[in-house]
Amino acid sequence: MCGIVGYIGKNKIKDILLEGLAELEYRGYDSAGIAVLQDENFSIYKAVGKLENLRNKTQDFHPEGFAIGIGHTRWATHGKPTELNAHPHIGSNSYVVHNGIIENYQELKASLIKEGFNFVSQTDTEVIVHLFESKLTKLNDPVKAFRATLDELQGAYAVLLITACSPETIFFAKHGSPMLIGLNGDEKYFASSDTPIIGLAKEAIYLEDGENGYLDATSTHLFNEKYEPVKEQTKALATSKLSAQKDGYRFFMEKEIYEQTHVISDTLMGRLGEAEINFEELDPELFLGINEIKLCACGTSYHSALAASYLFERYSKIRCSVEIASEFRYKEPLMCKDTLFVVISQSGETADTLETLKMAKRAGLKSLVICNVDNSSMVREADASILTRAGIEKGVASTKAFATQMVVFWMLSLYLAKQRKTLTSIELAKHVSLLREVPSTVVVKDELHEKLRRLSKRYLHGHGFFFIGRDVFFPLALEGALKLKEISYLHAEGYPSGEMKHGPIALADPELFTIALMPTNLLYEKTKSNVEELSARDSTICAISAREFDKADDFIKIEERSHYMHEFFEMMVVLQVLSLEISVRLGNDVDMPRNLAKSVTVE
Ligand code: G6P
Hints:
binds 6-O-phosphono-alpha-D-glucopyranose, single chain, 35% helix, Glutamine Phosphoribosylpyrophosphate, subunit 1, domain 1, Rossmann fold, 6-stranded antiparallel β-sheet, alpha/beta, 8-stranded antiparallel β-sheet
């Protein structure tokens, strides 16, 4: 999804903007651009495709000394990925970059065309810069013109604007899309997430919705949506982005799969007692009066939520329902105050999920977010938060974020079980010791990786994949299918094993690949019957189990384990590595698959 950077200062502005954009690459984009204003002259560069193309175009551009500039990576929403549609968008003497969607852009565009403005792009963003210049002509004051512009914009946005009539100032506004300002003496940075700024600034202002203002090298002017001055609250920024490098792996996704063992240890750290789970960040009163949990999320996070619903009902004996955020928003949902509303999000910025959280808060529900990014919009919005501690996840296809979400959910179901007295101390102690072993279940063994690499060549074609499983292995099957389609572009579906005979089995033939999740500690015989039904109809079966299964064409053996959750985590790794190797053989961009964005900040 789109990314924004901005800079005011005397350092190498071109490098700062381009390197900042590179830090946002993993979010997904299809064009990029920068605009630099120095000595009253604008320099503007845009390119379609990878940042490399933009770098090539700026080869002969070497600004020295004080300058201001803005940059953008665009993930096309309105209009194709072309140079004209790439940001920054130009007026006659101003440039703008924007994340989000301006919902009333068509009305605004129509009236600006009547005023005589000429539009060159198909984007919604371009209205912002023309509207600003229209207001500037009438009001003759850039601050007033910027505010008058914001007053007319509807939708979600984060905006940076530079204009020749105030050549040392960047105007900014945040309304629904993330934005922060990094401060380092007389150098100022803007970005849509903190990674471009880490290492450059020590502290940052995380803007709240409705906040706007302008700043130059020596002063910051921050206002709320009524344009009343706001006292800036700074927060310390992380100092190292070492964890976001590839460390010798071919892809970020591969590195992230391998580091699951470490990040899961981090997720568990300080949270495991003898026979209880400690979440220092939770006020135990959060669950007072709660009779139901509603989980809401998108994508991979939705899959972890689905798996969690089995754990909450099984261990905490509490009613639990799961919703896809984009569906929940418009279904006119009934929300009861005895429901704890839980959102799950790697980024904490997904627009649909964030909106459901706001809806729940408006309805007076207590809320909790399970999130990987501290200070993200959801963490700031929810009553309580649990951080998953997976570290920066760069691969668009989520792996370690899912793994850590599952660990948090398992712990949370036990935390609640203790409060609600639905498990005995002996049972709780048993679970705690099982949790301690999770890091070892996700270690990627060389032989396993090599086997999956060899096997992958047999799964590059066919008319589709079914990933099947029961209970928590059904959401894991959904997640396995999602991983495969995200990075291989092959058609894959996840299904509950028991549902296959209600329709999907009609597709069974040798060109239909079934990836069967067959844990020995949970409903093995039931799952086995379902897989046999497919095998009898000549579907090509790849079984994943600790127990040999002779009706499979391919068999991936996992370790004998004593608990199904350990089988869950080991199979999760198998599915991740299998997708990765299929994608590699197909020559796809593993870390930045086509059409996808890491963080979806539009609905
Ligand atoms: C995008 C990403 C997915 C992710 C989903 C939800 O679609 O490509 O990997 O699962 O958003 O993101 P979140 O940050 O809310 O977990």
